[in-house]
Each structure stands twice: as structure tokens, then as C-alpha cells.
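Researcher: Good morning. I'm working through a list of sequences from a screen, and I'd like to move beyond sequence-only analysis. For each chain I'm collecting a predicted structure so we can compare shapes side by side. This is the next one on the list. No need for commentary yet; just the structure.
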Amino acid sequence: MTRENPEVREAILAYVTQVVEERGWAPSVREIADAVGLKSPASVQHHLRRLERDGRLVRSPLKARSLSVARRAPSAAVPVLAEVGAGYHVVPEVEVETSVAVPASMAAPGAFALRVRGHSMVDVGILDGDLVVVAPSDVAADGDIVVASVGDDVGTVKILRRNGSSVWLEGANEDDPSLAPMPWNETCHLHGRVVGVLRSYDGAAVR
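Model: Good morning. C-alpha cells for this chain:
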């Protein structure tokens, strides 16, 4: 079994990147092995497959030695400011956790992320533990997913609905009969619109 070695993998990626940029096509497995000091071609293949699986290298099945370096979209860091309820039992703000990288298209001025707790938005793909990326705004259209505070320093993620002069917040979980629309009133405050959702499968947030 090939031993996992992130340093070797990074060296392989750097070498492939350099060779592709210099001559326009990828090095052979033997060239990679010689460059990074590996004796076994199987070890090189293992690291190449891992880099492909991680989305860092791309291989065309139509031609040999067709590895290319995946080009990632520009990203920006936004702070993770709080936990927010996806149910009507909302969660008070907590200290800043960290920052998280998001596509630059999501990083509006002042954008921030909130960690969701609860299950009332599962029907629109927002699950317990997800991070939602929020663009600050004090206006929202009918059907927008928003973050709003209700009362003092608490927040919730909901769908904003409008019908004439009536405004309310509603969840999205058909399996929860306890959910009921929340009328908008003087205790409610709109903080922004949800513009993205990040989910973690192995401890790292992903888009």
C-alpha cells in the first residue's frame, strides 16, 4: 500500500504544473518519479489519482499524457460570525469561529457566513451544520432566502414572502408539521440575503 505523503503530492503537482507551462504537455510517470525521488511508478500513479480526485489535476481520456492543472475560480475569505437557527428556536450569536474561502462572486462587500442549526430549510437544500454565505441587505424580494433577527440578538434563516402589504417568514420542511409562517413585525430585522451554501463532508467547508 502506498504511504500517504502530502509533501510528495505537492511536489508532484508543482512539477506537473511547471512542465505543462514550459512545454505544453504533461511529464511521463517516469519523469515525475525521477523529479520527486520516487522509485515506484505505482506510487506516482497513486498520487496522480489522488490529485485528480481532489480536483487539482484533470486528465482527458481521449489522449495520452493529457494531465492539466485545474484552474480554480478566484476566491475570497469571509468571516464566520455566528450560528443561526434554521428553526424558529433561534440560536444566539456566538464568537467568530474562523474565516472561510468562498467564490469571489459570493463575496459582496461586508459578506459573512453563518453556521446553520436546525432542519426547517432542508427542502431548499440547507441542512443542519451548513454554512450559509450572506450578502448584507435591508431589502429582499418575495422568495429570497434571508437571515433575519427576531427579538434581541437572535437570528433565523427563512424564506421571505410578500403578498401585498403582508410580509412573513416561512420554513421549507414538509416533514415538520410544527412549522408555521412567522408574520413580520416590529421585532424583526433583516440582515441580508443568502447567496450561497457551503457543506462539510470531512471537516472542510465545500461549496
